[in-house]
Design a protein that fits this description.
Length: about 270
């Protein structure tokens, strides 16, 4: 035989609300009036006694309370299972910065050739001009003819290199321009906005305003929360009618008996 679950700390406010409702019923008010003790002090005394005996009172609704705890744990487990794959998908998805950085890394190697195609003719042309100028000056002065011939040869070679690389660079630029013009631009799909399923201002579609909290794992409101609310209402009804009200009746009966006994003893002494 399994032991009945004890009243958890997060459910004690529900117990206190049910006790407050029981103390305000017409039955308990009339019983207090018949005993001549309908003041606030007697109500507070009954309330304190019920809070002290809360665990014993809660055992009267132990089956409903166990069913409520099972429904609450199942809803929390279902919510954590539903949130797990979405979190994993978010962590596994590539970030936008990584996606944007990928074309730049692949284009880095391809961007080196156009740069060389532009810089090489300029450097070769400058070198050719310098060599030809120095070689011409030495040839005109008539001194160091061998050096002058070498400088002129180097100038002609640099001019040839400049012309060849300039032609190759122009061809590369034309090919790149044609390629970019022929390829269509990338079109990224616009994010689809989900329509609001509930246009009314209430954030929670469920009529029950207080989700279970405490030691249970937190969970969002889902369709199966109706089972949690139904189990909670069944537990509170059983707690009120089978636990709290019988306890208050018994205590009022005991206090009425004690008052009658004290009155008889006072009459016998007189």
């Amino acid at each position: 035989m399994t032991a009945s679950p004890g009243l958890q700390a997060e459910d004690r406010p529900d117990f206190e609300r049910a006790l407050h409702q029981a103390l305000r019923t017409a039955e308990i008010r009339e019983a207090l009036g018949r005993s001549g003790s309908s003041g606030g002090t007697d109500i507070q005394r009954l309330r304190s006694q019920a809070l002290v005996e809360s665990e014993a009172i809660a055992t009267a609704a132990a089956p409903e309370y166990a069913a409520y705890l099972r429904q609450r744990a199942a809803a929390a487990a279902a919510a954590s299972t539903a949130l797990g794959p979405s979190a994993a998908a978010v962590s596994a998805a590539p970030t936008a910065s990584a996606v944007r950085a990928a074309p730049f890394t692949t284009a880095g190697g391809r961007g080196l050739l156009p740069a060389l195609a532009v810089l090489t003719p300029a450097l070769a042309g400058a070198s050719a001009a310098a060599f030809l100028l120095l070689g011409g000056l030495l040839r005109l002065s008539g001194s160091q003819r061998e050096t002058a011939d070498a400088l002129l040869t180097a100038g002609l070679t640099s001019a040839t290199i400049a012309a060849v690389t300039l032609a190759a660079g122009m061809v590369c630029l034309v090919v790149t321009a044609v390629r970019h013009r022929s390829s269509p631009p990338d079109r990224q799909p616009r994010p689809h906005r989900r329509p609001h399923a509930h246009p009314h201002p209430h954030p929670h579609p469920h009529p029950h305003p207080h989700p279970p909290s405490g030691s249970q794992p937190p969970y969002v409101w889902r369709r199966d929360d109706a089972a949690v609310a139904t189990a909670r209402d069944a537990w509170l009804r059983a707690l009120l009618h089978r636990g709290i009200l019988p306890f208050l009746r018994e205590r009022l009966k005991m206090s009425h008996t004690l008052s009658r006994t004290s009155q008889k003893s006072e009459k016998g002494s007189t």
